[in-house]
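2024-03-11 09:14:02 INFO queue: dequeued item Iron-containing alcohol dehydrogenase, len=378
2024-03-11 09:14:02 INFO validating residues
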Amino acid sequence: MIVSQLANRQTFFGRGSLNKLVPLLSEDPQPTLLFCANSFLQSEAWQKIKAELEPLLIGIEVVRHEASPEEIDGWVARWRERAARVVAIGGGSVLDAAKAFAAVSQHPLNTLRYLEKVGDTPISGNTLPVIAVPTTAGTGSEATQNAVVTDKADIKVKASLRHAHFVPHVAILDPDLLRGAPDHVLACCAIDAFTHLFEAYLSAKGNLFSRHAALSGLRAFLSAWPYLNDPGEQGDLAREQMMIASWQGGLSLSMAGLGVIHGIAGELGAIKDYHHGEVCGRLLLPFLQLLNDSENAQQQKLMDELAVALFPGFTLPPARMLASWLQDKAITPFWQDPPPLTQAEADWILTRANSKNALIEYSEAQLRFMLEQAFHIA
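2024-03-11 09:14:37 INFO prediction written
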């Protein structure tokens, strides 16, 4: 049985839906803090709403990367008891930073005390209300219960603050915010959404309900993947579908969890600045090789059902066909020119990596195979 708060209280979807933000804030005036990236402050979208939005804000915090515990604690020290509501406009790092601030600002201790893997204190559901406006289609953070925090400097950990109440109260999904993004960003964010959906579909924690949600998102992904950078109507439709796929990926992972790809990617992200979606996409391809050779009956059954649902009349083995299709239809070959890892870094990652909620427990040799196929290790 799945018992959880999985959905936003309000979700606005469609091209131009960013225009809902100002009326939403105006009808319920509260001290509101904006989290965003510099790229948003330089965008046409910001210029359109700036004059109306700025008077409704008490301040703006710019998020430049995955937030560290120290950065979150700094924001909390600056805005505790001053901010009553948070708006987050940006990619996954911005949304996670805002969600983390909203939660920790309502707790007495510093961020590390509540963080999964390293914390010693349970976190309650107390949080400021968050309005999440994704400008990328990948993480699905606008629909998840967790806020990812990364410390690369000291304890080297990438982990979450997690509670059902941390799902943003409002999500505004405007596909027009994806227009003009570089091909590499579009593709790497999208393959992150795919990985969320795919791993949730194959999860040992999954059931008919969660797999149905994941399958719906995978259908949306397939319709969008080849056309994300198209400047015309086909591209507009694709960006709409990918925004849906990303949101459904957030719902799916909240219900069923993730698998071995994220079991490796999360540890790698604690020591390297590589784009998380690109890391997942690079690991996905060797994972599909392992999946093709899998003798696990449940994995085989789920892959057969997936192929029938997504690729009627398929002729190749499902995992091979999926790998081939993803590469053939990609708008950019994100898997080429693998970035480097030292042998010491690879060993560090592998001693900490795990299979998460995968249907089988992957061996150290299989984890190493995935990492060595995805990255240049020297």
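2024-03-11 09:14:37 INFO annotate: Residues 181-377 form a domain with the Dehydroquinate synthase-like, alpha domain fold (CATH 1.20.1090.10).
2024-03-11 09:14:38 INFO item closed
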